[in-house]
Structure formats: structure tokens, C-alpha cells
Amino acid sequence: MRGDQVRLNNGMIMPVIGMGTYSFENDRKSTEQAVQLALKVSLSLTHTHMNNFAALGGALNEAIANGIVEREEVFVTSKLWGSHHHDPVSALQKTLIMEYIDMYLVHWPVRLKSWVCDPIPKEDEFEPLCLDVTWSGMEKCLEMGLCKGIGVSNFSCKKLQNLLDFAFVPPAINQVEMHPMWRQKKLRDFCRDHNIHVSAYSPLGGPGNLWGSTVVIEDPVIKSLALKHRATPAQVALSWGLSKGASVIVKSFNQERMKENKGALDLKLEDEEILEIDSMFKEMKILRGEVFVNQATGPYKTLQDLWDDET
């Protein structure tokens, strides 16, 4: 196994740095072009959302047909949206335009009414979650060969333990927001103890997104270390995430940025530098809570309510 890969609890080998393709603003053509660019710089881990899987799958199928890449050389992840908890199998079958995906994740530990597609649901659009029903459907996807692995996203320690209490197949991955200002130490410790890999989305703090900020890459500590290593602030932040044993999913549709992000693999922070980052005062989750309050996300008035045991 190469240094840029990680072995999951189900035996799968996954790249530790990849490209996120979900974007509310970009159309199918933009996504397809971005995937083609990612393959050119050898980014083989691609993460998508069911709403734009057609674009990603189409671009990968074309690249495979043209001999640019082998199917086994790319690792494709998609997510189960909250309005499809009642039937994960049908949800995946309706969007699957490849033979299979590598990893299928439960997007959030919340269930929405079947017609909801808004990324920020309203209070009356939530339904009670029956996680055992959802996970049984995820395990069925695995059994049917629609995916090679199953996991979760945005699950706290408490929700993971609840899942582990009844799951026949434990989650291979828990994908959460993680970066130098939302370090997720308690969650990382729990996942390590239960052999669940932590994958970090928004590892740069999500700049450019509704819920994001540039506070991570503009932090004086991050910028100082970037100057010291002749690297970029983004590379420092990504290297920190990799040093914690996480994989990092970075969204960029720009080829030069993709190359820059991959360059984080070559940056090795010293132990004292990692400790310096770990000591940074701010916690991004406080900012996230403010966003959730402003957007009125149903029963979860703040992200901290959803992340109920991560304090």
C-alpha cells in the first residue's frame, strides 16, 4: 500500500486526498470538465452527491472507455440524501450510471420527507429517523453489489455508537467537516478505537460556500507555517489533516488548485508545528452554529444541537 492510501476496515484501499464535486452553482458540463482535469493530475478519489452523480459518472465512464483510466484506479463515493432514508437501494439505483460505486454514505443522521431536496430544509420537512431501517437498506446495497463499502457522514460519537449497537456491517468511514479550526479530536479518538476511518470534507474551512469561511487559510499560524515551508496555506491545512490520519476531500474545479492540493502529500509538518496548529484558539463549529440558527434547520436550531456530544 502506498503512502498516499489508507486501508479501511473492510479491506478496501482508498486514496487519502481527493476531489469533491458537489456544487450548487455548477452545471453538468462544468462538473464533467472538472473530473477530467482531476484525472489529469492523478486525483483518483472523487466524492459526489446524488444530485450531480450523472455528471461525475458520465465523465468517468468516458475516461474509462477512452483508456485514460481503469475503473479500479478511481475511488467513487456518493451519499444517501435525507429524503431517501426509507429506501437506500432505490435511491442508489436511480442515480447509478456506473456498474457500482466504491463507497455509499448516509449523508446526515436526519430523515426528511420524501419530496425534500433543498440543502437547508425547513422545520416542517423533517421526519423521525429510524436508523436501523436506513442501515439495513445500506447493507442491502452492499449485498447487491451496488457499492463496495458503506459508511456515514456527519455522525457524532453518540450516533455512531447507536449504529454500532445493531449494525451487521460497521461503517467503514465517517465523513465530517474537519480542519485546524474544527479538529474533531473526541470523534477521531472514538473512530480510531472502533476502526472507522475519518474523512474530512471542507478541510480548508469551506471558503466560497454558504456555510464556509476563509478564516482557516487566513490564520496567522497557518500562513506563517506556509511561509516557513515555502508552501501555501491550503497545503499546510491539508497536511495537518493528513497528519491526523484522515483523508481530505477538497472541492476545486481549477486544475492549478488541484495540483496545489495534491502537493500537500509532499509537505511533512514537524510534531511541534502540528501541536502549534492544535493550540489555535478559534473553533469553527461556533461559526457553523450561527449559520444554522440563521437558516432555521428544523429540530436542530444549531449545529451543536445536531453534534450533540462533540463538546
Automatic annotation (TrEMBL):
SUPFAM superfamilies: NAD(P)-linked oxidoreductase
Domain NADP-dependent oxidoreductase: 17-280
Binding site for substrate: H107
GO molecular function, a single term: oxidoreductase activity
UniProtKB keywords: NADP
Coiled coil: none
Keyword Cytoplasm (UniProt): no
Family the entry assigns: Belongs to the aldo/keto reductase family.
Protein name: NADP-dependent oxidoreductase domain-containing protein
Organism, as annotated: Salvia splendens
